[in-house]
Amino acid sequence: MEKVAIVILNWNGQKMLWEYLPSVLNYSRDEATVYVADNASTDDSLNMLQKHFPEVKTIVLERNWGFAEGYNKALSQIEAEYYLLLNSDIEVTHHWLTPMIELLDTHQDIAACQPKLLSIFDKDQFEYAGASGGYLDKYGYPFCRGRIFDTVERDNGQYNYLADVLWATGAALMIRSKDYWDIGGLDGRFFAHNEEIDLCWRLRIKGRRVVCQPESYVYHVGGGTLPKSNPMKTFLNFRNNLTMLYKCLPEEELGSVMRWRWLLDYVAAWEMLLLKHNWGDFCAVYRARRAFARWKKDFAEDRRKIQADRTLKKIPERRGFSLLWQYYVKGKKKFSEL
Fold first, then answer.
1. For 37-46, how does the pLDDT look when each residue is reduced to its tens digit (9 = 90+)?
2. Where does the chain show beta strands of DSSP type E?
3. How many CB atoms lie within 10 A of CB 321?
4. pLDDT score for 313
5. Could you give the 3-state DSSP secondary structure of residue 85?
6. Strand pairing of 209-220 and 110-119?
7. Of 117, 171, 222, 279, whose CB count within 10 A is highest?
8. Average pLDDT for residues 193-199, to the nearest whole number?
9. Is the dihedral of CA 13, 166, 211, 118 positive or negative?
C-alpha cells in the first residue's frame, strides 16, 4: 500500500495540467505517487501525459462522472493510506505535503485536512474556494477563514494557526482512505459542488476531526471548469446544498431550517432577477428547488443512517448564527469579526 496518493481528476484540462502538474511532480515525487484520473476527456490530455509526464499514473474513466463520482471510481482503484484530492489548477510549493502528512500521522482523530489556499493571481490573497478552512452557518451557507461570500481577505498571517473546521476544500483535500470509505466516499449523485462539504460534515457527525494546516500552502486558479456566474453552477449549488442539509441536519432543526431556506432561496432568486438582471440564475434557483423536491425521497435512507451513526449532536464548526444577517445587516465582512 502506498503512503500518499495524489489524485488529480481531469476533464479536458490539458492546459491546466501542462501549466501546473510540473510543480506537483517537482515538490511531491519523494513523498507521494501522482495519479491523473481522466473523466473521458475529448482533448489531448492523455496523449500529453503519456508523452511529457510518463511518471504520472493514469486512470481512464469511460465517461464524465463529474467530480464526486469521478473521484469515487478513481480512488476505488488505488490502495493508499492517505488520498490527496487535488485540482488540476493548483500550483503547489516546496515542502507542502510534509505538514499535512505529519498531522495525520500524529493525530489519529483527524480524518482530513487541507492546506492554506491562496490565489495564483495575487499570492498574498486567499482564494475563494477554501481559503484557510471552511464553516457553515445555521442555514447552510458556507464561509471560510479568509472569505465570506464575495469578500476575500488578504493573507497577513492572521489565520496561520492550526484550526478545526467543518469542511476542507475539495481543491486540495487530504483524507485517510479508511475514513473516506467508512462514510461511503463523496456522494456521486451531487455530480459537482458542495460534495466536499457534505463529505466533511458526515465525518464531523461521526466525531472525526477536519483541520486546516496552514503550514502547508498552495496557489489556486479557481473557477477552472465553470465561470462564477453560470446557471448550471447555480443550479448545482442550490440543489446540492439543500440535499446536504436534508441529509445532515439533526432532527430537531430540520423543519425550521428548511422552511427558512425556502424563503431565503426565493428571495435570492428575485434579487438575482431584479437587481442583477440575471434571468439564467433566477431560473436555476427555481429549477434547483424543484429538483430537490423530486429527488428528496431518494436520500431518506441516507438521512436515516447518518442520524443513526451520529456521535456529535452539536458541531461547533457549524455556527448558530445567520451569515446573511451578520454580513449584510451587521456589516461583518471578515471571519475574525464573526
1. 999 999 999 9
2. 2-10, 33-39, 57-61, 80-86, 90-91, 110-119, 134-136, 142-144, 147-148, 151-152, 163-164, 172-176, 209-220
3. 13
4. 86
5. strand
6. parallel
7. 117
8. 97
9. positive
